[in-house]
Amino acid sequence: MEQDQDLSRRNFLKLGVAASTLAVGGTAVSGNALAKTMPSGKTKAAIPKAKGPRLVIVGGGTSGLTIAKYAKKEYPTFDVVLVEKRDMYASCFSSNLWYPGIIDLEFLADHSFLDAARNNNYIYFNATVNGLDRSARKVITNEGEIAYDFLVIAPGISYDYEKIGVKDVETMTALRQTFPGGFISTTEHVTIHRKVQEFEGGVFVQTVPSGNYRCLPGPYERSCMIASVIKKNKIKGKVLILDANPEITIKKDGFHAAFDELYKDIIQWMPSSAVTGVDVEKKIIKTEFDSIPFDDAAIYANVRGSTLIEQLGLMAPSTRSNQKEADIDIRFYNYIGDPHVYVSGDSRRHPYSKSANTSNTEGKYIAKVLAARAQGKEIAWVSPRTVCYSMVDADPMEAISVDAGYDYDPAKDLISGFSKDTKTFEDRDVAKGKATLEWARGIYRDMFDA
Amino acid sequence: MDRRGFIKICAGSAAALAMGVPRVWAEDFRDFSQALLTDTDGAPLKASTLGTEEAYIFHYPYKGVPCFLINLGKPAASMTLSGDPLSAEKGPYTWPGGVGKTSNLVSYVAICTHQLSAPNKDISYLRYAASGSELAGAPGKIVCCAHGTIFDPAKGAEHIFGPATYPLVPVRLEYNPVDDSLAATGIAGHHLIDQYFKSYKRDLIKEFGPGVYRESVGGHTIMQLLSKYSESIPAC
Question: CA nearest A404 in B: which residue?
Answer without folding.
Answer: B162
